[in-house]
Amino acid sequence: SDKKTAAAAAAPVQIEDDRTGLSVETLKRAFADNLFYIQGKNADIATLNDYYMALAYTVRDRLLQRWLSTIKAQLKPEVKVVYYLSAEFLMGPHLGNNLVSLGIYDQVRQAIQESGLNLEELIAQEEEPGLGNGGLGRLAACYLDSLAALEIPAVGYGLRYEFGIFDQEIRDGWQVEITDKWLRYGNPWEIARPEATVEVKLGGHTEAFVDGAGRYRVRWIPERTIVGVPYDTPVLGFKNNAANTLRLWKAEAPESFDFQAFNLGDYYGAVNAKMYSENISKVLYPNDEPLQGRELRLEQQFFFVSCSLQDIIRRHLYVGGKLEDLHNSAAIQLNDTHPSIGIAELMRLLVDEHNIDWDTAWQITQNTFAYTNHTLLPEALERWPLSLFGSLLPRHLEIIFEINRRFLQEVSAKFPGDTGRLARLSLIQEGPEKFVRMAHLASAGSHAINGVAALHSELLKRDVLRDFYELSPEKFSNKTNGVTPRRWIMLSNPELAFLISESIGDGWIKNLGELRELERFANDKEFQSRWRQIKLNNKTNLAEYIRKRTGLVVDPHSLFDIQVKRIHEYKRQHLNVLYIITLYNRLKQNPELEITPRTFIFGGKAAPGYFMAKLIIKLINSVADVVNNDPDVGGRLKVVFLPDYNVTFGQRVYPAAELSEQISTAGKEASGTGNMKFSMNGALTIGTLDGANVEIREEAGEENFFLFGLTTEEVYALKARGYNPRDYYNGNPALRQVIDQLASGVLSSGETHLFAPLVDHLLNRDEYLLLADYQSYVECQDRVGEAYRDQEHWTRMSILNSARMGKFSSDRAIREYCEDIWGAVAVDVVLEEYVQATA
Ligand code: 9GP
Question: What is the pLDDT of residue 15?
């Protein structure tokens, strides 16, 4: 054995084998090794979660080489980096996606199987990082995926919330929010980088002074300092060498102990500062369309933005760049207005800290920033009370005043005497209470402004940002959203992905336009039947999941009609419910009626403070109770509310859907991205001409899309004429019956008052025009039911929907951003061969 030890000592250490090897044998050994040495467990005592962690570390080892090689390839002065600033990143579980990106799904499955376990079960163990509310955060995640797939140097910057979006439970039909403790068991995908910590200042006041060169300057005397610690997560490109970084900031106290307080015996006081600082990254605000902000929210925004900008400048200087050239090496994208304080912060950093003159600093700032708007809802446009803003960020308020003064001078020069326009464009909203308008700050401080679907971008120019458009039309463009086919087809719907690749090759994964080649199979009987079989398998899986989660049994042969998204009045989940009740009434009237059996599936969270949205959840569950248990219905209709809709659950839902509900009031949904995921997976859409639905219909062909409802123009016109929902109620007996039932308590076990607020809203205001669109929706839904009876034709439409969704790949969207806004190009990553401790 002495000989053996000597031999082992002499042999070169095969680090790359055990940490990077991809054979089933090596994977098995590495997996067992990680279980033992990282989790400190062996098979006798390991939990499923231990196995998941051991596997996660095994996979992480296999991506580090790419990650470090990418950092090395990108850390060069001539490389332009895209910095995506977003308060939300809804990444979804990492394990499965990383297996897909590395191309090692099959080997790993086998290694796990040979270890006596099941890969899918381990994947299901992962707590998804729910660091976002919905579309906006998920879009950021899809964009990071595409940036890496296209080898574009990029960093996603955001907040490492200790608690992400709440977990939703349903009790007695109502939503109950549970804290999301996603970090409870540790997060194997992130690496803390405490050495790259930065400081962020808050509060206090400013002082003017004259510097050594005789220049008038301002210094900020802050009241407190917080420390931002970066946590990095790699974002792999699909089967290439690139791995970009998602860098999330955690807030900490500079000193975790106030020794003065401690020495005075005030232990609680001493710890207090630490708690206060850490509050900043404690919890995600659970509103997807933010209403009036709170101070902590502004602190969060400023905190992560300041950390990120300091980090960007540090990198730029590190590679030898000059600040005057920042825009040549950095493109900073503002994902909505949440990070728009960055405009004032970059000005402050350049002018106050780096001593650059105002005009130059403004040039740099404008050339570096670009702004994406994600909403048309006026109440969702962020604005901060001046008093709150000034007490938290006194220097930034001064800077904003100065930006505004110069900006309004420009406006005056272009539109002399137009005082109304000045007031509309001002970054400050006047009135008894004054506000800083963040969309104005973002628009003035950026060189590019975009909406997220063609219609939305037009409406921005016409409405929400009209004055900015008239001032600088050249800044505006449209960038229709997209989603990544890696997660949303390959990972979620492997059987479909297999069929597609077998039929047209696998080029579609990187170039989704190639799906068009599926068109030639649309009439092919054999292909159609395989297509249908896969859908049926996915529906069966979802049915099983529904049974496990809710106890409800649904028939996989019924039409799966699905609406999953945040619950919001403008998204009109309750319009869907009105149709369900209508169908129910028809069956009650005539139990013999022939109808297409349907399963209506809902999922989505309501903002905890949004009463009407929560009432809609209760409504869905109440109607479900009645419909699911009525013998006259005989199981032909089923209504399911699946709790806790999230990315993981989305991956089960989209592949199983046959009808995708995209029924928002025209002119309200900026884009939607779920609509794209459904359609790619072969669901047909019932929808209004809203957001990206317009383009989905254009691509799919109008004959393959179920259109209903008022157009945006008609909505405007109707409202201008004076909309009276009661006219529709009085003129439509079926609708009247449904509304009366809501009011009468027959749908709420006799509780007559329960849905009164809803009924009151619908009859007296109906801001989102449900009653106006009711008849058109019902007729359209009836056409859907009819169409489903012809399975061959339905399948043909389904195939064509998938085949024609190439446009909605986030790769296409990212290419457009790169070309039109960022000026960023791919950087080839060469894998560095050796792991070594010294350079
Ligand atoms: O409501 C929009 C949604 O339509 C869009 O698809 C998504 C991504 O662009 O952003 C949503 N907006 C927000 O979440 C907040 O404005």
Answer: 52
Mean pLDDT for 138-152 is: 98
Give the residue, by CA position, lying nearest to ligand 1 atom 14. 136
Residue of 723, 724, 758 whose CA lies nearest to 740: 758
Of 679, 59, 609, nearest in space to 294 by CA: 609
* Phi and psi, residue 116, nearest 5°: 85, 20
Cα(515)–Cα(800) distance, integer angstroms = 9
Q: Where are the domains of the chain?
A: 77-93+128-481, 485-709+777-808
Grouping H, G, I as helix, E, B as strand and the rest as coil, residue 138 is helix
- In CATH, 77-93+128-481 is 3.40.50.2000: yes
Those residues whose C-beta lies under 8 Å from the C-beta of residue 426, and which sit 6 or more positions away, are 404, 408, 437, 440
Known catalytic residue: 566? yes
Atom 10, ligand 1: residue with shortest CA distance: 136
Q: Which atom of ligand 1 is nearest to the CA of 135?
A: 7
757 and 574 Cβ atoms separated by less than 8 Å: no
- State the complex-level ipTM: 0.98
**Helix, coil or strand: residue 477:** strand
Contact 367, 447 (CB under 8 A): yes
- Identity at 698, one-letter amino acid code: E
Ligand 1 centroid to 373 CA: how many Å? 8
134 Cβ inside 6 Å of ligand 1: yes
Question: Which fold does the domain 485-709+777-808 belong to in CATH?
Answer: Rossmann fold (3.40.50)
Residue 723 has which token pair? 């909309």
Q: Which of 28, 62, 348, 571 is catalytic?
A: 571
Inform me whether the pLDDT recorded for 169 exceeds 60: yes
Whether ligand 1 lies within 6 angstroms of the CB of 644 is answered as no
Per the DSSP assignment, residues forming a β-bridge with 191 are 232
Confidence band for 475, pLDDT divided at 50, 70 and 90: very high
Residue type at position 723: Y
- Contact of 153 with 824, CB cutoff 8 Å: yes
Task: Look at the alpha carbons of 510, 512, 517, 521 in this order and tell me if their dihedral is positive or negative.
Answer: positive
Query: Is the model's pLDDT at 93 over the cut of 60?
Result: yes
Q: Does any ligand 1 atom lie closer than 6 A to the CB of residue 288?
A: yes
SS3 490: helix
| Phi, psi torsion values for 235, nearest 5 degrees | -120, 110
Active site residue 327: no
Q: How far apart are CA 302 and CA 308, in angstroms?
A: 10
pLDDT at residue 288 tops 70: no
pLDDT of residue 258: 64
- The ligand 1 atom nearest the CA atom of 138: 8
Ligand 1 site, residue 241, Cβ cutoff 6 A: no
Share of the chain above pLDDT 70, in %: 96
* Token pair 């700050």 in the structure block, residue: 441
Euclidean distance between CA atoms 792 and 814, whole angstroms: 36
Give the tokens for residue 25: 């044998």
Provide the strand spans (E) within 89-173.
Answer: 154-159, 167-171
- In the residue annotation, 565 being an active-site residue is answered as yes
Spatial distance between the Cα atoms of 310 and 316, rounded to a whole number of angstroms: 10
**pLDDT of res. 198:** 97
Residue from 452, 457, 484, 568 whose mutation best tests the ligand 1 pocket (most atoms within 8 A of CB): 452
Q: Answer yes or no: same fold for 77-93+128-481 and 485-709+777-808.
A: yes
User: Would residue 374 show up in a list of annotated catalytic residues for this protein?
Assistant: yes
State the amino acid at position 313 in one-letter form: I
Interval 443-465: pLDDT, tens = 999 999 999 999 999 999 999 99
Q: DSSP string covering 143-163, please? A: HHHHHHHTT--EEEEEE--SB
